[in-house]
Structures are given as structure tokens and as C-alpha cells.
Amino acid sequence: MTAIAFSQISGLIKSIAVAVPDQLDCDGCFNLAAEFADAELRGIELPNALNAVQIHLNQCPCCAYEYQALLEAVHAAEDNPDTNPDTNPDTNPGTNSEVNPGL
Ligand SMILES: [Zn+2]
Hints:
Elements lengths: L1 H15 L9 H17 L5 H12 L1 H19 L24
Helix pairs in contact: 2-3, 2-4, 3-4
The site of zinc ion has 6 residues, from helix 2 and helix 4.
């Protein structure tokens, strides 16, 4: 009965599988996610390598969630272009022309 169950399962898998196979695993998707987000935000045409990311995102809720988080982070960065975390002059000695020699 195990064999029957297996054939039923594989038949189900075949019926679920979409026409375009998912060529990426999650690691590969993650490695390309930033590039994919960049292309999408710029509105440029996706190269084949990035189409694979789109396919994977459509089929992998985990990566889709990670990608949404990435997009939100990118948007947040774009919303605050003037944000400069480098407020400590000690980290940027080259630009500190007004040193205080009197001390
Ligand atoms: Zn994934």
C-alpha cells in the first residue's frame, strides 16, 4: 500500500507543479533577491536569472516573505535619503577641519 500511496502523491505533485519549473533553491533565491529588487524598483526588464527568482517567490512563501521585508527596507532607505548615521566625528577624522588646538 505504500507504493500506491506514493504513486498517488507523485501524481498530486505533478498536478500541482506549474508549467515553469522552479530552478532556484532558497539560498539561490536569497543571493539574487537584492538584484531582483533593484531591477524591479528600476522597472527594468528582468534577465533570465532573475525570472527564476520571480518563479521561486511565487512558489515559496518563505522567500516571498523575506523579499517583502527586503523591499520594505529598500523603501524605508529611499524615504530617508538624508539620514546620516555618521554623527560621531571620531569615525570621520578626515572631514573634521575645525579641530580645537586651544585644548
Ligand atoms: Zn525559497
